[in-house]
Design a protein that fits this description.
globular, alpha+beta, three-stranded antiparallel β-sheet, 74 residues
């Protein structure tokens, strides 16, 4: 378990990551190799998600920014 700067507990399970509070139905995962990064997120209650593939070492940062964008839209 990890705690974010906003006090959200993040849990790791078999390749999926989930968190507490209002993220307990959200699953996400990122990965990277030299020059390539991927990220996915799905919310099973809201029935939406996204997959992001990049030819960049900054794809995980972009994945977090996309999540932040959708979070503001609630």
């Amino acid at each position: 378990m990890t705690t974010t700067s906003k006090g959200i507990h993040v849990y790791y399970t078999l390749g999926f990551v989930t968190a507490d509070q209002h993220y307990n139905t959200t699953y996400f995962h990122g990965g990277s190799n030299a020059g390539f990064t991927c990220w996915y997120l799905m919310d099973i209650d809201k029935k939406w998600g996204y997959v992001l593939f990049t030819n960049s070492e900054y794809g995980e940062k972009l994945g977090n920014e996309v999540w932040d964008y959708f979070e503001r839209e609630e």
